[in-house]
Write a structure and sequence with these properties.
Shape: globular
Oligomer: single chain
Distance between the termini: 32 Å
Number of helices: 8
Order of helices and strands: HHHEEEEHHHEEHEEEEEEEH
Length: about 280
């Protein structure tokens, strides 16, 4: 979830929660900003320490096109297997192409290194962005439901964004929901308060009103995973090219897998899943 936050940013379970009374922050023993900072610190720590690997179903819709994939995480990156397109199973030709793609990845060390490098780059980029989250915003207690506490956020006027991604993040306001007992991020959502221009607008901009949403759930004791991602942003890139990102993802059916799987072993598992699904 953290590296996805770096590329699109994300977010929230809308709670029908009660407003916090004056005594609630005192009962928690933390200011809203302190709670947000503790959650950020804990999430980064868990990311560094957690070596568990998962297999899950990904339903993705992007620019009107729908795909369903099975994803299996390995130490060399996540391996995907396409299951259907726009609600239809793959044709024989599409199956062959998918088999060739996976086999090429397994058989060529250069492809494996590329997969690993891309995974590492995204994780590092996301960690850098997530690490400054508590500095980018000013947080305020807004509501609670059991252990889930909702914080609203707005840009911190004293923060100076060090990167383009940080500038986009700093242009947002929204809500963050956290599990105050476990100090884990449950949801985050935000929208751009104004146009974010790059190079005075000559290099491009993201339009006011662009938004993102992320929801996370505890899929196993102490283990949280992203289950929903939504992004809806528009703007212009260099030379006035119109850009738009309308994307939704739903992650479900999480299963733990061995943390030492090779890509070849992961491919065999995904292929078996296809055979079993076709025989049902």
């Amino acid at each position: 979830m953290i590296h996805r936050l770096a590329t699109v940013i994300a977010t929230i379970i809308l709670l029908g929660s009660n407003a916090l009374s004056q005594s609630d922050p005192e009962r928690l023993g933390l200011s809203a900003n302190e709670l947000a900072r503790k959650v950020v610190t804990n999430e980064l720590k868990r990311q560094n320490e957690d070596r568990s690997r998962w297999m899950y179903r990904l339903e993705k819709e992007e620019s009107g096109k729908k795909q369903v994939q099975e994803i299996l995480e390995t130490n060399n990156g996540s391996l995907s297997r396409l299951l259907s397109i726009d609600g239809h199973p793959l044709t024989t030709k599409q199956e062959q192409k998918e088999n060739q793609r996976m086999q090429r990845l397994v058989s060529h060390p250069d492809e494996q290194r590329k997969l690993q490098q891309e995974s590492t780059k995204k994780a590092e980029q996301g960690a850098r962005l997530f690490n400054i989250l508590a500095d980018v915003f000013v947080f305020v207690y807004a509501g609670r439901q059991g252990d889930l506490v909702t914080l609203t956020f707005r840009p911190n006027p004293t923060f100076q964004p060090p990167s383009i991604e940080a500038r986009v993040l700093h242009g947002m306001q929204g809500e963050m929901t956290v599990d105050s007992k476990q100090e884990r991020l449950a949801a985050l959502n935000g929208h751009l308060m104004e146009d974010v221009k790059f190079g005075g607008g000559l290099l491009g901009q993201l339009d006011k009103g662009g938004k993102f949403e992320v929801r996370r759930e505890e899929v196993a004791p102490g283990h949280w995973e992203m289950t929903v991602l939504g992004v809806d942003m528009n703007g212009k890139a260099l030379l006035f090219k119109t850009i738009g990102v309308q994307e939704t993802e739903n992650h479900s059916d999480f299963h733990g897998v061995p943390d030492d799987l090779t890509l070849a072993e992961a491919t065999d598992i995904l292929n078996r899943e296809i055979v079993e699904a076709n025989n049902r």
